[in-house]
Amino acid sequence: GNICRSPIAEAVFRKLVTDERLENKWMTDSAAVSDWNVGRSPDPRALNSLRNHGIETAHRARQVTKDDFQTFDYILCMDESNLRDLNRKSSQVKDCKAKIELLGTYDPQKQLIIEDPYYGSERDFETVYEQCLRCCKAFLEKSH
């Protein structure tokens, strides 16, 4: 739905890129496979988790477009269901250049799946933040 995990990952990655002064080398965004929450702000618990770590975001939920597969070098997702859906969508796009992967493949702690915290507690959102931070740091190190 693009209101929990991916906006956290987007905001975390954007901060890492800014801190490393690499903003001119990265275009960062997040989107959902579904259209359920298009236009909505991230879940208040996601915003709270980010704020607790000094990160702000003005993100609004959006749905993945065909252009995303042609524009972005990487599309990183959170679980196998999203990976399957994104691979299916990408197969319908001419000139797909995006490498589609699980963000968790970069986790030094080897937690491949970043579970959806929507039905959980504040602590579950904090766990997502911690996973995203580890994965985004490792991805950025590998990629530049």
UniProtKB/TrEMBL annotation:
- Under which main EC class is this enzyme filed? hydrolase
The name this protein carries in UniProt is Low molecular weight phosphotyrosine protein phosphatase
- Pfam families tied to this protein: LMWPc (PF01451)
What Enzyme Commission number(s) does the record list for this chain?
3.1.3.2, 3.1.3.48
Q: Name one GO molecular function term.
A: non-membrane spanning protein tyrosine phosphatase activity
Q: Which InterPro entries match?
A: LMW_PTPase, Ptyr_pPase, Ptyr_pPase_sf, Tyr_Pase_low_mol_wt_mml, Tyr_phospatase_low_mol_wt
The family line of this record is: Belongs to the low molecular weight phosphotyrosine protein phosphatase family.
Where's it mainly located? cytoplasm
Which Gene Ontology cellular component terms are annotated? cytoplasm
List, alphabetically, the Gene3D superfamilies matched: 3.40.50.2300
Residues spanning the membrane: none
Name of the gene: Acp1
**Which key words are in the record?**
Cytoplasm, Hydrolase, Protein phosphatase
Q: Which residues form the Phosphotyrosine protein phosphatase I domain?
A: 1-142
Q: Where in the cell is it found?
A: Cytoplasm
Biological function: Acts on tyrosine phosphorylated proteins, low-MW aryl phosphates and natural and synthetic acyl phosphates.
Catalytic-site annotation from UniProt: 5, 116 (proton donor)
* Reactions catalysed according to its record: O-phospho-L-tyrosyl-[protein] + H2O = L-tyrosyl-[protein] + phosphate; a phosphate monoester + H2O = an alcohol + phosphate
